[in-house]
Amino acid sequence: MEKNFVTQQINYIESEVYRIVKPLGFTKHGRTLHRFVSEDISQVINFQCGQAYLNTTHLLSVNIGIRIPECFERQFHIANDKTYYHEYECNMRTRLGIVKTKRIKGEKVYDLDKDVRKICRDIIYEIEADVLPVFDVFSINTSFISLSIICSIKCLLSKLISISLICKLFSFYKYFLLKSSSR
Predict the structure, then answer these.
(1) Angstrom distance (rounded) from CA 39 to CA 137
(2) According to the model, what pLDDT value does residue 158 have?
(3) Burial letters for 102-131: b for 16+ Cβ neighbours within 10 Å, e otherwise?
(4) Is the dihedral of CA 88, 72, 41, 99 positive or negative?
(5) What is the pLDDT of residues 131-145, one digit of tens each?
(6) C-alpha–C-alpha distance, residues 37 and 43, integer Å
(7) Cβ(13)–Cβ(116) below 8 Å
(8) Cβ-proximal residues to 6 (8 Å cutoff; 6+ apart), any chain
(9) Long-range contacts of 81-84, Cβ-Cβ distance < 8 Å, separation of 24 or more
């Protein structure tokens, strides 16, 4: 498969996704779509191809990330010193397919040899149905006050509690509160 063809396929998918999320405040940085919410929480959608040495450049994964600076930096009132953050800088990371199923085996990998419009529809559907609602839960910094307190306690307790475990537990707690309040 030609590199040019793969690039064209990814460019098409990325531009269609960007058309949907741009009105929500996302900006484009290479293969990363990023937005800040509540001034310092980063939400990221990233397009990643397979590796050339494995001959998998035609396989596409869509990475999802949320960066909460109080968890990442372990300080309060972190000022943004960057225009955007990469997906690998996020403290909560996943891929399309896992957001809904919550199983690693649910991870979706798209073969760019297939129908690009169908792939694009699938990606946009999952972003709208599964990713954006999760992003909405993690959009108000003031809702992270208790998380920030837990994170600073974690710093005091050294490595007794995993920061990612705290973030994941808090995310389930926030999700439960959101579901409870919508009933």
Answers:
(1) 15
(2) 42
(3) eeeeeebebebeeebeebbebbbebbeebb
(4) positive
(5) 898 888 777 654 454
(6) 8
(7) yes
(8) 49, 57, 58, 112
(9) 83/29, 84/27, 84/29, 84/32, 84/34, 84/42, 84/44
Which residue type occupies 180?
Answer: S
Residue position matching structure tokens 């306690």: 153
Q: Taking the model in full, what pTM does it have?
A: 0.72
* DSSP-derived secondary structure letter, 73: T
Q: What's the gap between Cα 7 and its chain centre?
A: 22
As given in the structure block, the two tokens for residue 88 are 């690998």
* Length, in residues, of the chain: 183
**For residue range 82-95, what is the model confidence (pLDDT) as tens digits?**
888 888 888 888 88
Which residue, 95, 93, 90, is CA-closest to 126?
95
Q: What is the DSSP code string of 107-131?
A: ---EETTS-HHHHHHHHHHHIIIII
